[in-house]
Amino acid sequence: MHEMSLAESVLDIIEEAACTQHFQTVRRVVLEIGKLSAVEPDAMRFCFDAVMRGTRAEGAELEIIETAGAGVCLACGAAVAMQAQYGLCPTCNSPRLQITAGNRMRVQDLIVI
Amino acid sequence: MCGTCGCGGREALISGKKPSRAPRTGATAFRAVPADTQQEIDPMESRLIRVERDLLSQNDQLAADNRREFAASHTLALNLVSSPGSGKTTLLVRTLQALHPHIPMAVIEGDQQTECDAERIRATGVNAIQINTGKGCHLDAAMISHAWAQLAMPENGLLFIENVGNLVCPAAFDLGEAAKVVVLSVTEGEDKPLKYPDMFRAARLMLLNKCDLLPYLNFDVALVLANARRVNPDIEIIQLSATTGEGMDAWLAWLEQARTA
Asked: Which domains does chain A have, with CATH numbers?
């Protein structure tokens, strides 16, 4: 389950931010998780709680903002809503879709004390 | 925490040892959050910090460092990925036997436990480093950086990275390779590319292995090829059998072309 590694990355990002921004405790972590990214939100919640235990972010609220998948058809240029990493263009039926949104996973904001 | 890459508190072992530590410098150092994104609030009150950092940014930076090092030594690094039991190690052994000692080669083996695979590789006369990821389900760029430092490979060589058998997690972690090569065996289902699209999208080449078993199986080759291309229209495909050697010539030719490109 790579969400464990990704939760550890969240902790690394928090610790680096704590060094530069001087805070003691994290109250809330806001993550942006694209629908087409490699993260399952429920698995991330589970791993987040486990990884943050004993750290300055123990007990922090995890807010996940899920962003929709979107792409562009490389054959006809149509904008395409994407539910999965692959699909067919509804206009011309081409499988050559380039993802333009919804594949990001990042720490957006922290609310800290 | 390791200063080279920030690994720390993790349990990966490289050749049975914890990776050595080095000071964090230059390209791998973290960027500070710009001051203008901070809010001036009483420190006793809670405040919002805008971070906007990708979860994989640290891995991606290290992968970029690895990629530069591979390029500097004219090494073709390939990341071999598959589910467990697809025949990656057998394929590698056969490949090494065909090319050793004409081309400098080395192998980085990733498994949760044991040195079994590295020992199989070393029996061919090629240097291998075993990374045991412990509970980890994938290799990451930091592990490759540590293993690469131990390899001392000659220039113009081929570096095979055999990832942990897993079609999910290794897709997300760039190691700095020139290409991912996904191995799928005909004893698996034709729908694997649709079930694990991240991996088949990320791969440049798919090796359809164990083709010698096709007469005994109810496996639709045309369907699996169509499924792979549905997920990744540009994927290259070679059908082979690491056991009988059928199709190995095409794979060796692909390697030679990629190495001299």
From this structure: 3-68+102-112 (3.30.2320.50)
Q: For chain B, give every domain's residue range.
A: 60-260
Q: Which of A9, A23, A113 sits opposite B58 (nearest CB)?
A: A9
Predicted ipTM > 0.95 = no
CATH 3.40.50.300 fits B60-260, yes or no: yes
Per-residue pLDDT reduced to its tens digit, B189-247:
999 999 999 999 999 999 999 999 999 999 999 999 999 999 999 999 999 999 999 99
- Closest CA relative to residue B188, chosen from B206, B208, B205: B208
Chain B residues in contact with A104 by the CB 8 A cut-off are 54
| A83 has a pLDDT exceeding 80 | yes
Contact indicator for A98, A27 with CB cutoff of 8 Å: no
At B130-149, the pLDDT tens digits run 999 987 889 999 999 999 99
Residue in A9, A31, A108 nearest the CB of B56 = A9
DSSP state for residue B216 in the 8-state scheme: G
What B194-197 contacts at long range (C-beta under 8 Å, 24+ apart), as own/partner pairs, is B194/A86, B194/B227, B194/B230, B194/B231, B195/B167, B196/B167, B196/B168, B196/B171, B197/A84, B197/A85, B197/A86, B197/B231
Residues of A in contact with B138 (CB under 8 A): 2, 5
Residue B28 above 80 pLDDT? no
pLDDT range class, residue B8, cuts 50, 70, 90: very low
Q: What is the model's pLDDT at position A1?
A: 67
Q: List, in order, residues 6 or more apart from B62 with CB less than 8 Å away.
A: B5, B28, B140, B141, B142, B145, B176
Q: In Å, how far is B64's CA from the nearest CA of chain A?
A: 17
Q: Do A113 and B45 touch (CB under 8 A)?
A: yes
Residues of B in contact with A16 (CB under 8 A): 30
3-state secondary structure of B107: strand
